[in-house]
Amino acid sequence: MYNVSLQRGGKTTLSFPKHYTTTLVTVEGSIRVNEQEEVAADHFVLFKNDGENFTVEATSDALILVLSGEPIAEPIAAYGPFVMNTRQELIQAFQDFEQGKFGELK
Hints:
There is one protein chain. Helices cover 11% and strands 47% of the residues. Strand 4 (30-33) and strand 5 form a beta hairpin. It has two domains: 2-69, Jelly Rolls (Sandwich); 74-105, no CATH class. The chain is elongated. With 106 residues, it is mainly beta. GO terms for molecular function: quercetin 2,3-dioxygenase activity.
């Protein structure tokens, strides 16, 4: 995980293993990826697992979050903010949440 801050016109190249799943989120500003696609704030890019390098250029002052890692190759079940492996685990997580088992924020 990288938190990248670029000034307008700033450019960086990032490299990850070819088989990793990699995504970036534009938190603030706007960027251009691989000299092609412009990505505005609150948008993300999910890269195909077919290359090791990508270039990011800030088209305005920008803050981006880059996430990359080995795929876990597990099933996914998602509902609202919950992501589990099975529907049953999802139901259990929702019940645990409703019963206050996730703790409290104060």
